[in-house]
Each structure stands twice: as C-alpha cells, then as structure tokens.
Amino acid sequence: MDRTTSDRRQLCCLSMANTCISRGFVGWLLVFHLTVCCTGTVWANDSAFPDSQNVFPDTTVAWISIADPDGFSESFDRTQYGKLIRDPHMEAFVKSFREQLSKAGKQRLGKLGLTIEDLGQVPGGEIAVAAIVPEAGRLATVLLVDTTGHEDETEQLLEEIETRLLEQKAERLADYEKVIRVYRLPQENPSADDTDAVEPQEQVVAVVHEGKALVVGDDPVQVSHVLEVLKNGREDCLASTEQFKNVSKGVLKNLRPEISKLRWYISPFEFAAAYKSAHPTKKRQKGPDYIEILGRQGFDAIKALGGAVMFDDGPFQMRHQTIVYAPPLPGRDPLSVDRYDLAARMLRFPESDDIQPFDWVPAGVSSWSSLKWDIQTAFQSAESLVDDVVGEKGVFDDVIASLKEDPDGPQIDVEADLIACLGKKITLIGDFEEPIDVESDRLVIAIEAIDPEKVAATVGKSMSTDPDMRRVESNGVVIWELIDRSMEIPTLEIETPGGIVAHADQEEDSGDARRRRLREKEEKLLPHSAVTVAHGHLLIASHRDILERVLATSGSDSLATMNDYKKMNTVLKELHPSPSILWGFGRSGESIRPAFELLKSGSMPKSKSVTGQLLNSLLGDGEPGSVRDQKIDGSTLPDFKLIEKYFGTTGFVMNNLDDGWFLGGITLPLEAAGQQTQEVGSK
Question: Global pTM?
C-alpha cells in the first residue's frame, strides 16, 4: 500500500472512530466532511458481510457507509480536489494539517487505544458506522469494518489496543458472549467548581474481530447483535424501514451504479432526542430547547434525510443528491397549505419552470441563489413558533400590535403594509471586498415586491423613526443605512452552553432587559446593514457598497450573461428539467477565498460574516462577546493565486416531492465552466 493511500485511509477511519466517541451532530458532520474529502465508495463485489444497511437494526437513527475506501480515493484523486492536495504549494499545509489531525486523533482515539496509523492499515472493504437506539433514552454507536486481506493486521491491532487501554488504567472485563472484548474506561472526575455536574456515565469499549469483520462499539449487546447477523443480515434491518426505503430510492435515482458513492442517512429528531437523553448536560442550560420546540411546532414531519456523494462522475468533479423525507400528515393533501401542523406549515415552496438571475445581479459575484417561498403562509404560521421560542403565549401578537399601535413606534400594519405586498421569490447574493479582512464578506437578500411603492413607503415610515438609521440617496433611490452598531436588529442566535437567549424563564425577562442584552451582543448578523426598495424588490444588504453595486448593475454587466453561469445553467437543466423551487450557482474560488485568507492569518474566529458567526456560535464557549480559538493552523497555506486554478463552479437545484424535497448539486472544473476575464472577476 502506498503512502498516499494509507494516509487517505487513516483520515477516513479517524473520522469514523471520532464519531463513535463523540456521537453528536458535530461528530456526524465531521464524518461526512472528512470522508467526502478523503475517501470513497464503490460497492465491493466480494464483501465480508451483506451491505451494512442490511446488518444494522431498524432502530438505527443515523448511518454512514463507505463501501470501498480505495475506490473512492482513486476517484477523488482524479478530480481537481485531489490535484489540489498533491500540489507542491500545498505540501507544507497538508503536512501541518495531518500533524494536527494526528494530535487531535491521539487525544480522542486514545480512549479506544487506537492511533490514526492503526486505522489506516485495517480496511479492506466497506466501512460503516451506525447510531442505534436500543430503547428510549439510550444511544449506542457501532463501527463495522470489512478487513478482507488485512486479517493479520487486525488481530495484531486488537492486542495493541488492549495494551494501550490497560496503560491508561482501563479495566478489562469478562468477554461478552465469550468472544467480544470489553473494557471499562476510567471515569473523568468533575472539576471542584462544577457544582451542577451530573454523575458521570460508565463508558465501555467492546471490540471483536470475527472472520473478515471488525466490530467496535460502546454497547457490547449491540456489537453482539451485529456480529450474529453478519452472515445473512437481518429482516428487521435499517433497509427494511419505510423511511430508509423512501430516502434511498430518491437518493440513487439517475446515478450510475458503477460510480463510487458515499451514502448517509439520519432521522434527525429521533437522533437528537436519543442523544439528549443519553448525554445530559453537566450544567443547566438557560433558554429554550430548539429541538423540542421544532418538534412541538410540527417540524418532526421531517422523518429522515439521506444522501449520496460521488467524485469524478463524467464531466462533474463532484455530484451529490439529497432527499428530505417529510410525508404529509395522514389524510392531508400533499399540495395543501395544511399538509403539516402549526409552524411547519411554513415549509411551503411554490414551483417555477425557470428561476434565473435578474439583470441587476452583478457579473462578478461569488454566489447567487433564488428560492420560491410562500411568504404569506410562513408569516401566518410563525405565531406559535415565536411564542414557543420566547416561552410566553401571545408575544407574537403583542409585537405586531405594538408596531401598529405604539405612539412611539413606526405605526405600521406589518401584515397589510408589508407581508401582503411581497411576492414569493427570495434571492441571495454573496460576494466580498478587498483587501480581505474580518468584515470583507458581503450579502444581499432580495425579496420580491408585488407592490414596490407600498413596501418602500412602509420601509421609509419604519426607518425614519429609528435614530440609528440614516437616509442616503444613491443611484436614484433612498437607502436606509445603519450608523450605530448598538441598534437592536435580528441577531443570529444558536443555543450553546452558557449562551444567552431571551426566554420567559430567565431573570429580567422584560422587553427592556431583552433589548439591553441584544444591544450588548458584540456579534450581529448584519452590523452594517443597508435597506432600500428597487428593481421591484425589497433589498437588505450587509453593507451599503454591495447594495450600490446591485443598484448600478444592468443588462450586459449581469451574472446571467457570464459564460461560466450559462454553462452551469445548461448542465443543470439537462440533469434536472422538472420545475424547481431553488436554483443556485457559485464560483468555488471566490466563495472560499475570504475564509482561506482569514484561516491563513489566524483571524477566522473574528470573522463578521454569517458563516463566521455561525462557527463561533457552534464552536465557541457560549460566553457573550468571547472569541473562540482557531482550531486549524493555516499559517502554512500558500498564496491563493497559486492554487485558484483548482476551483471551478458549483450549481444546485431543489425540487418538491409529494413526500418531501430533492436537492441535487454538481461542480464543474474551471476549464469546463468557461473562464471569465480578470476584469469581471475582480472586486
């Protein structure tokens, strides 16, 4: 086995094993990301066991499978992504990143007595991981590896695992069913100042190598169940469930069976509920539980999601397909507004035969997408959701009433003066400005207006009463620009440990207290926002400069005239000719460059972009105003111009189904996409 193949296998197995340890949403996303980037799938002809979806039980709530890591790695290598990793300019960073992964792997895999190097030598066929709910309140994780051709290495690995675990003071318990090795891991003592800490749960590792299969898990019973059915599979398997069947048939539609694939599946609400029960938090979290709220509000109609990813599929560098399985409630019409209950009714997306960029979308933007959405229904469905999030019934109606009746407010009827005047198309435009820094990202949200004059009057009436907004005239229209960062505007709030969320069960839950907390938030979604009505749309921008570019664009200077967009549009229409609800396009190099430069400078955690704030919320410590440490050292990254040739264009489309939605996407290499002139792409 050559060094490159071994490294790719190590990355693949590291991601799988990390999932077994973390067993959370972040772990599953890590699996998806690393396996997509580093490994792949070709269904093996001589497998050691049936396809894993026929082995894992019907109580499986999440699953990822890579049937042939070598095959997928080879297809990955043939793409521009593979060439990027092998580029000499990337050598220093790839080496550094591998060392960082190794260090992280030792910290996490060490609990299992494993190293990255170990895992790179074992797989000979399918690698699969499943999260299983044996009973309410429990979540078990099982890793299944086909070790064909590597049986001796696997047996040696088992002995090394035991030695390392015993060195860490793990306890070897009696073998389960006489064949499964079981180890009790030493418990971590809670810190002295953590008075709210819960009793630590016992952690065990169960390992067995039987024939050509390695099975590792945190529940000996589930490892045993998998072992028992390895020869012929089981009738009550994951593949037998209605949810998995419906997801799979859509995911694999029109994909060539001989092309390598990575497949994944998750039942989101079942997974979240089981994870929460199995992993109680050490400290009481304030604020709402968003998973429970979404379930109560009818979003648990989304039963499952699943997808397939493949590299080097003919002209496509990468192709992916995803199914969101959300059947209507029993007896409901799939086309009805009421096919779901409560706030989930906002999941209503009209179709269009041709969604295209307007002639005012600038030619050189990084990304563009447009979605058809029933905004009126969404607004009417939002009441119960807002009340549930705040934790107090009637809050939504009170806010709407105050906007209309408060003598010190704008005195506007939101539903009649604004919502009723909007159409059903929402456009997102993404770009950046140079020189690149933490505030370089640009965003424009354009909402179709069927009565632009009335929308403009409503916006003007609302903004003119706010001292934090100033009136500016540009390109023949009035722009309202934020001049005070302390203005109370919608913020991107994601529940994290210690995070502040305005909720009725918190102290100082008055409107003034909530407003003060919002003002004290250092990170805001649109800290330099600018708003206007033009081109028949309500335009909300992150910065005035990108808004003025949109206002000044027309005709031949628009995205729709560019060769790379026209090429992608043609290909997408050939693949997905049916009416769509979402159409999107992106230039990979332009889209990734701001994050690339911030990563290189070590400034990514300080990013003011939506993506940066999202990462800070997910990965930070939850303390208001705190900035997380950057997880990846990007100091060895090369000048972006040396590698930008590897980034082409991306396209994606979304369609309605009777029982959910389909999302498909592709990437094209730069030479196939149709290169643009430097003048068009420049900022």
Answer: 0.85
